[in-house]
Design goal:
Blueprint lengths: L1 H19 L28 E7 L5 H12 L2 E8 L1 E8 L13 E17 L10 E7 L5 E6 L4 E2 L3 E8 L2 E3 L6 H14 L6 H5 L6 E3 L19
Parallel strand pairs: 9-10
Antiparallel strand pairs: 1-8, 2-4, 2-8, 3-4, 3-6, 3-7, 4-5, 5-6
């Protein structure tokens, strides 16, 4: 009788354990909680931002772009433009191998429609020959002229410019010789385009210029001046 009572007690306790044991697995109707969205509050230093810029009639387009670059401390990449200009000064290609900026300057009087406007504008101080604007125009008789802008470029009506702004620019000298290629590869493996102390080398704002392969003596910096007078 005692053994039968003990067996009944063990069986009853086992039944109670099975009764209070929680079932395995996820409860019915449950689901993963949604994760909060990731919001980026700051732009990357290498971000390109698109702009539609309207230059008012009677204003110098080159000087307007240079002023924007100086105030924002950003580089401008000009993609296209639409509108009309008047009394344009263009630098034609040099017939000899004198290098950029050595060709003759031609002054065109009258009103011209912009076919193309491309180039870049950097805030001062900037390395000479790196930035500049080139334009192609069509005259009232259908003649097409073009060249580098060498003076004031006055808008004779509203001119809309499509451009992108950037904060960082990496300068590389091409072609890269074997020794520089080895150094560049080692630098890339260590830091992936390591940013040097550019203000100490060039005197440029830290947020605009970075350099991975160009030695300090490649570019000499001059006092910044309006692009329209370059």
């Amino acid at each position: 009788m005692a053994g039968s009572a003990d067996l009944s007690a063990i069986t009853s306790k086992t039944d109670e354990q099975h009764a209070v044991r929680r079932p395995r697995g996820r409860p019915a109707g449950s689901k993963n909680k949604p994760k909060p969205p990731i919001i980026i509050t700051r732009d990357s230093a290498n971000t390109l931002r698109a702009h539609a810029m309207e230059v008012s009639p009677g204003c110098d387009i080159g000087e307007s772009l240079a002023s924007f670059a100086r105030r924002k401390q950003q580089g401008i990449w000009v993609l296209s433009a639409a509108g009309c200009v008047s009394n344009v000064m263009l630098r034609q290609p040099s017939p000899s191998s004198g290098g950029p900026g050595s060709g003759p300057v031609v002054t065109l009087h009258g009103r011209f429609e912009i076919l193309s406007l491309v180039g870049s504008v950097l805030p001062p101080p900037a390395p000479p020959g790196v930035a500049g604007l080139a334009i192609y125009l069509v005259g009232p008789q259908g003649q097409v002229v073009g060249g580098s802008i060498a003076g004031p470029l006055m808008a004779s009506g509203p001119v809309v410019i499509m451009a992108a702004t950037f904060m960082n620019a990496t300068f590389d000298r091409l072609p890269i010789d074997k020794e520089e290629a080895v150094v560049a590869a080692a630098t890339h493996d260590q830091h992936h385009h390591r940013v040097m102390g550019v203000p100490d080398i060039y005197g440029a704002p830290q947020n605009l210029f970075s350099n991975a392969t160009v030695p300090p003596d490649v570019y000499t910096w001059s006092t910044g001046r309006p692009l329209s007078k370059a």
